[in-house]
Structure formats: C-alpha cells, structure tokens
Design goal:
Layout (H helix, E strand, L loop, with lengths): L5 E5 L3 H12 L3 E5 L5 H18 L18 H10 L1 E4 L10 E4 L5 H14 L5 E4 L6 H5 L8 E6 L8 E6 L5 H13 L3 E5 L7 H17 L5 H12 L5 H8 L1 H15 L8 H8 L28
Parallel strand pairs: 1-2, 1-4, 2-3, 4-5, 5-6, 7-8
Antiparallel strand pairs: 6-7
Helix pairs in contact: 1-2, 2-3, 7-9, 7-10, 10-11
Keywords: NAD, Oxidoreductase
InterPro entries: 3-OHacyl-CoA_DH, 3-OHacyl-CoA_DH_CS, 3-OHacyl-CoA_DH_NAD-bd, 3HC_DH_C, 6-PGluconate_DH-like_C_sf, 6PGD_dom2, NAD(P)-bd_dom_sf
Organism: Parasponia andersonii
C-alpha cells in the first residue's frame, strides 16, 4: 500500500485536473478519468497552461525529485515530462492498476457512493480510495465498499496546484496505514496537512461556508451592497477575497450543497441556506464558471461610437 506509483483521478474539472497535475509533476503516473468525451483535450490543455504559468511565475522549482528548473531550463521539457505521465480515459477499468484513486466529482453523496462501489469492484485490493469531498461523511462513503479501512478523505483546496493545504479526514474505520500513506502522499505534493474528524463540513468548510452564507443574508436583507460586503471583509479582516467574490469562485451550487450537508448533518437552523443563495442557484447563476453569480463576469463589448461629422 505504501509504495505509490500510479494515481487515478476521477473527474477532470478544475479540482480533478489540478490534482492530476500535482501527481504528474511530482513524478507519479496518472490516469485522469472523465465520462465527457471532450474532457481529455480540455484537461490536457488546462494542465499544460497551468504548468506554464507556474514556471513563468517561479512557483515550480524543484517540485519533485524528477522535475526542477535547474535540470530542465525551459517549459517544453518540464511540461512534456509531466504530460508524458498523464493519461486520460473514459473507461473505469483503466484505474484497475492504481495504487490510490482520488475522486473529484459532483458533491453528491449518492453519486459518490455509486462511484465508490464501482471502484471497489475494479481496483486492486490494496488500493486506497480517497474522496476530495469538502463536506460529505467519509464513513458513509466507505459503507459503499468492502474496504472501509482503505477509504479516506483527501480534501484539496482550490486551485490544488497553488493552495498549500490538504485536509485529511478519517472515517470510522480508516486504518492507520491508510492515513499514513495518504498523509505522505499529500506531503510529497508539497502540502501542509491538517486532520479532521468525520463531522459535516470538516474544519475548513465548517467555518468558511457559514461565513459565506451570512454574507448572502447581509445582501439579502439589505445590510449593504455586495461590493461593500466584500470590501469590508477584505480590508477589515485582511481576507484576499470577499465572501461573495469567493462564493462565485468556488461555485454557488457547491456552496449551497455544502450548506445543505451542514444543515442536515449538524441539525442546527443556523446552517440553513440563505434564500438568496438558493434563488441564484435555481436561476443558474452559479458563479465564474457560468459567467454570472453574485457578480457578472460576462465581457461587455462597448458599442462602436459613430464618427463625428466635421
């Protein structure tokens, strides 16, 4: 279990692609799975561009034993080395040889349980099944498998190549060996690890999401404009992003899903989602990925002014 050579990642969105990038850059062979037939080309392009940006900003230096700026002085060599380790697929069977599989799919307990059941059937018996869930019970996800001792939460922050933290969550039956291997993998990726018990929302989102929800209530009840709410938190508490801006970055649909998990799992009315958050999600205003959320990110083209007559 401890000798990790192949990592499977399920889901090629921003989180999944970022996790796959980390594994490839740090010398591991990666299978990135997505059922969308257009996903492989998008993911490869996204990862290639991300590596390029990290190198150009000086962030990717001696990231692993196999990649360093001192040994590969240009992007084509570094990018090619990492991308050679990355293979994309839509066939779950291709994950059968993986030592660790990390799922990064939609934040739905039912969908994740179905996937974990399928992974349990096709992966080798020694494989660890990890979830990037930001709020759902690891114990309940593990119950869909015949290997609950090898199921663990491995919650990366967004975007994974940049953010320094990984939140590891042990289910009721997660073994010490599974925990130690997962922690070592996160540290190999250059991350700082914090450990949470298996309570709804874990550590980060137990604190963050109620703050975001309260910002929506402040907007909903007319306490202040969205701009002033965000400016207040940025300049008043030294947050790099305001809570409403951050919600757009995360995705309002994800924020709503997590609030519902907190509300159901902790049973306290203070976790009830703000009606405005629900309304925005119902309207499809889910944030940056859709071009509109609390803020409008659509590019506005200024009309061409008619030339003045002399």
């Amino acid at each position: 279990m401890g000798n990790i050579k192949i990592v499977g990642v399920v889901g090629s969105g921003q989180m999944g692609s970022g996790i796959a990038q980390l594994a490839a850059v740090h010398g591991l062979n990666v299978w990135l799975l997505d059922t969308d037939p257009d996903a492989p080309s998008r993911a490869t392009k996204s990862i290639s561009n991300s590596i390029h940006r990290l190198i150009s900003k000086g962030h990717l230096t001696k990231a692993s034993n196999s990649l360093s700026l001192s040994s590969f002085c240009c992007f084509p060599a570094i990018g090619a080395e990492a991308l050679r380790r990355l293979r994309c697929t839509s066939n779950l069977e291709d994950l059968s040889a993986a030592d660790v599989v990390i799922e990064a799919i939609v934040e739905s307990e039912d969908v994740k349980k179905k996937l974990f059941n399928e992974l349990d059937l096709i992966t080798k018996r020694s494989a660890i099944l990890a979830s990037n869930t930001s709020s759902i019970s690891i114990t309940r996800l593990a119950s869909a498998t015949a290997r609950p001792s090898q199921v663990i939460g491995m919650h990366f922050m967004n975007p994974p190549p940049i953010m320094k933290l990984v939140e590891i969550v042990r289910g009721a039956d997660t073994s010490d060996e599974t925990f130690n291997v997962t922690k070592a993998l996160a540290e190999r990726f250059g991350k700082t690890v914090i450990c949470s018990q298996d309570y709804s929302g874990f550590i980060v989102n137990r604190i963050l999401m109620p703050m975001i929800n309260e910002a929506f209530f402040a907007l909903y009840t007319g306490v202040a404009t969205k701009e002033d709410i965000d400016t207040g938190m940025k300049l008043g508490t030294n947050h790099p992003m305001g809570p409403l801006e951050l919600a757009d970055f995360i995705g309002l649909d994800i924020c709503l899903s997590i609030m519902r998990v907190l509300h159901a799992g902790l049973g306290d009315s203070k976790y009830a989602p703000c009606p405005l958050l629900i309304r925005y999600v119902d309207a499809g205003r889910v944030g940056r990925k859709r071009g509109i959320g609390v803020y409008n990110y659509a590019k506005v083209t200024e009309p061409v002014k008619p030339s003045s007559r002399l």
